[in-house]
């Protein structure tokens, strides 16, 4: 049975996630994640990481996102909205290039992100 979280807590997590990225503070971003978290994105293989599109564990996340931050000096997310369920939050935002993205973040009982998925428009 999944842990149920208060909608306000999950919404706050989504806002904190955006703030941490906008501060370009990778270690702050990583504090939001469980040690065994996994992330899936179509950008992962393009950046030279796992061909499956999924990286697992904080060390892999640190390597992937560290490389991405180095390539995106103007990175900035403008929060559009957050959507919550009992065990997840979807952060809907626009990046510095005007692309709209939905980031699905599932959390564990401790409120740490265990699974993330970046969802982009198909075009």
UniProtKB/TrEMBL annotation:
Residues 15-96 form the SnoaL-like domain. InterPro entries: NTF2-like_dom_sf, SnoaL-like. Signal peptide: none annotated. It comes from the Bacteria. This is Nuclear transport factor 2 family protein. It comes from Bradyrhizobium hipponense.
